[in-house]
Amino acid sequence: xxxxxxxxxxxxxxxxxxxxxxxxxxxxxxxxxxxxxxxxxxxxxxxxxxxxxxxxxxxxxxxxxxxxxxxxxxxxxxxxxxxxxxxxxxxxxxxxxxxxxxxxxxxxxxxxxxxxxxxxxxxxxxxxxxxxxxxxxxxxxxxxxxxxxxxxxxxxxxxxxxxxxxxxxxxxxxxxxxxxxxxxxxxxxxxxxxxxxxxxxxxxxxxxxxxxxxxxxxxxxxxxxxxxxxxxxxxxxxxxxxxxxxxxxxxxxxxxxxxxxxxxxxxxxxx
Length: 271
Description:
MetI-like fold, about 70% helix
């Protein structure tokens, strides 16, 4: 048996559940509800309202990715340190929230942020004024970071864990300061993990709808909410497919730009 045949089940799966659905999205994007070819779907989503929703989605996804990187990279670096013996235990603790259902994790955030939630109850017990959190962009952003942070930590941790520490020792022997070692040695070598982490966080963040729907009480309207409304509430899969296709193109372009940072996936792409 040829070794390439071992990939046949995966190839069949990709064709049935990735290629075929994408072909349906492409078909509906360029047809109307009667099945006739049209480009009016793209004209409809070119209005300022759609542009504002797209901008809000990209903006929140960008800040979510940035916060995940700022929090996740130091965490991954700490866990990958050779001097830290309990790294595996903490990695498991990072993975534990991912074992729970996505909606359950978001409901847990609601119990923290709601008007009678844990945070406001604690503030009131300390004699402080309650804070309105549900229905704000801050609550949505925190919920996104909470749900997607492990997707940043794990790829960066994997790359740092496999890194050749003799290179770091050589840099230290040559008199490089700790800051210079991190900026000129560790960071460039960890670029593949950073690129993977950014991709894995940005893609679900820019199209999320459950987090914005639950933590903003419908006050924050993102692209994911719009797609859901067109497919379910309005029963208009044509415009919904058009929005999905536009988002797919934007995500592919953003991934392509990220890959240019480290085209051979070997690190060192910044210097």
